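BUG: 3D viewer hangs when loading the predicted structure for this chain

Environment: internal workstation, default settings.
Expected: structure renders.
Actual: progress bar stalls at 90%.

Input used:
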Amino acid sequence: MNAHLQPQTHLHRVELKSKDYKNETTSFWCAGCGHYGVLTGLLRALSEIGVDPNYLVSVSGIGCSSRLPYFVNSYKMHTLHGRAGPVATGVHLARPDLAVVITGGDGDGFSIGGGHMPHMARKNINMTYILMDNHVYGLTKGQCSPTSRTEMKTSTTPYGGVEIPLDPILYMLTYGATYVGQAFAGNVKLASQLIKDGMEHKGFAFINLLSQCPSFNEIDTAHAFKDACEQVPDGHDTSDLNAAMCAVNAAKQVGRIPTGLIYKTERPTLDQRMAELVKHVGGHKDYDLRKIIDLARP
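Structure tokens produced before the viewer hung:
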């Protein structure tokens, strides 16, 4: 069973090719942008899972990465800068039978939207967050982002950065995400596998995809990302939080980027705990979520 998809949605599994999940809108990122690889990986994952587009919601904020819902055959919400998480949370709680995917960038997720990330993780909301991390603000023409390296010179850091870059993986591990993975966007096979497994995971799945920006980031190129990425060692215990953090830190100390499944665990999700609470207090008078869902079906 697809864990993100409740039984009602699972009954609507479809057999579609990845191209069937791409709508007619022409993708409009710069030539060579890594986000094309992210889109391809997502489309492949949706096909492998068999998600019915009628039960798929793609939510984003603002930024180059946040254009992605435009190109996917699904319901979609292009929200305020940094606010994709709260909006997606509302979608999921209102319709837990839907598959909810968030796509955004390092600025959208960890700058203006950074205050929402720990709460999605600690609450273990049953949805998937795909972060397209290019270490720069691309849409606004190349300013420093929370994940920019200190040696990177931008219009806001012409002499290089003075702030330590944030590590999205360590951040999400610390705050309690129950599925954490990382890949280079150019490795579409791995990116697709992580997205698929993340969507099938019961809980909050965070996938960091390193995506080159050929227009405004001259140091984190596709070649640089590819060379720096290193698969987590064989035998890595993905259920051990301490081992996950140690693996990330060990790789960073030698200038490497760990990729693959970093951490995975199981614990009750927010909707499960809320359902138990409603049951405990005797339910809501005149409130039947299942009837509402049935009425809303196409």
